[in-house]
Specification:
The structure is a single chain. This protein is mainly alpha-helical and 403 residues long. The protein is globular. The protein folds into two domains: 178 residues, Growth Hormone, Chain: A, CATH 1.20.1250.20; 190 residues, MFS general substrate transporter like domains (Growth Hormone, Chain: A).
């Protein structure tokens, strides 16, 4: 009888230092690709082509995005099959660093495109197992905090781009070396100190009973809803990232590139503490989906303000609301996705499928923008994106009710 009255043992937790190292390793992925794709690659295209060759840059980024999508699924699945993650992460870290520096030796556009595709292959050999490893190690009670820590990734990625372009710090090929060293310093500590951090109960598949068809359908609805909600917000966020400067200059022609970059930096600086607070709140109150629903709703409101803005001040206010909300949403969503993917034997592969929400928008946005902006202006685009974000909010609310 006394055994029946004994309280269940508390869920094992990870120490804060390990969560910090996991978040640092994940941010290392952003540092690996943000400076390269936004600064180093365009500069090299100009050097090879002798001018701003938009078509060549598009080939490199599009081909890289396709390879990244497939590689993330493939290496996630391979890390599932092999039964370990850290070896894949280390191999990807070394190979991506080597290929990043090899790409600087490309002597033609097509050699550069090939190098970018191979680099994306190696980079996702590292990124896919990192995400799955977090799912192996971090319990549900700490996933909100982990998501808050993930918010440092975009900020550190942007900061690294600014660091490697500091005049006099590094020039030409040295910039690639600096990026490789920074990424190594961010990823290696987790690999060296994270051995044996998997939690046994997170490695046991939670399969609904065969007779529990409603339970199986509910779980599938949660997973598909989380995937679609992230895609909808990601499309909105990526569209603003691509066309922010064009839109702001349509309101204020004298606005400089530096002003737009500063605005993005302010958004990142605000988003990090909010993500930490919201993630910690969701852990303490066992309400993992509530912050996501609120943030998606706020992102929709920000886009609506942008659509209706007639002056620069209103536009900036709307963008700040949208930018902070969307970045915080995406950070928290990354960790809460681990909550609904309960099959550790397929966790890496399934996270690779979720990663498509990061690459598919690059295929959607050009057509969407061409269809709306020339005929109806940016306001029509923002209204449509506001509808997408509002739909994401409704999806998250539905998912929370299924729990």
């Amino acid at each position: 009888m006394s055994g029946l009255l004994t309280e269940a043992a508390p869920e094992p937790r990870q120490p804060l230092w390990f969560l910090l190292l996991l978040a640092l390793a994940s941010a290392g992925g952003a540092v690996a690709y943000v400076p390269f794709l936004t600064v180093l690659l365009p500069v090299q295209v100009i050097d090879l082509a002798g001018t701003v060759d938009v078509k060549a840059l598009s080939y490199a980024t599009f081909g890289g995005a396709i390879v990244a999508s497939l590689a993330n699924i493939g290496f996630g699945w391979l890390s599932d099959r092999s039964g370990h993650r850290r070896g894949w992460i280390l191999a990807g870290l070394l190979l991506s660093g080597i290929l990043l520096n090899v790409s600087g030796q490309a002597e033609s556009i097509w050699q550069l495109v090939a190098c970018v595709m191979l680099w994306q292959l190696a980079l996702n050999m590292m990124l896919a197992p990192i995400a799955a490893w977090a799912g192996d190690c971090v319990p549900d009670a700490q996933k909100g905090l982990l998501g808050g820590l993930f918010a440092f990734g975009p900020a550190l990625g942007a900061l690294s781009g600014a660091i490697v372009t500091i005049p006099g710090l590094a020039d030409g090929e040295q910039r690639r070396i600096v990026v490789s060293l920074i990424v190594t310093a961010m990823v290696l500590p987790a690999l060296l100190l994270g051995k044996g951090r998997r939690l046994p109960h997170l490695m046991v598949p939670a399969k609904p009973a065969a007779a529990d068809a409603p339970g199986l359908r509910r779980k599938r609805s949660q997973i598909s809803g989380m995937w679609l909600a992230r895609l909808l917000v990601q499309v909105s966020e990526a569209a603003l990232f691509a066309f922010l400067l064009f839109w702001l200059r349509s309101l204020s022609p004298d606005l400089s590139e530096n002003s737009a970059a500063q605005l993005f930096g302010i958004v990142l600086a605000i988003a990090v503490p909010i993500a930490l607070f919201a993630g910690r709140w969701s852990d303490r109150n066992a309400r993992p989906m509530r912050p996501l629903a609120i943030l998606a709703g706020l992102a929709s409101m920000g886009l609506l303000v942008m659509a209706l803005a007639s002056g620069l001040s209103g536009a900036l206010a709307g963008y700040l609301l949208f930018g902070v909300s969307s970045i915080t949403f995406l950070s928290l969503h990354s960790s809460q996705t681990l909550r609904v993917l309960r099959r550790p034997q397929l966790r890496g592969r399934d996270l690779g499928v979720f990663n498509l929400t990061n690459t598919v928008p690059s295929l959607i946005i050009p057509g969407l923008t061409i269809a709306l902006v020339p005929a109806f202006g940016f306001s029509a685009l923002f209204l449509f994106l506001a509808l997408l974000a509002a739909s994401a909010c409704l999806l998250i609310v539905t998912i929370s009710r299924l729990n």
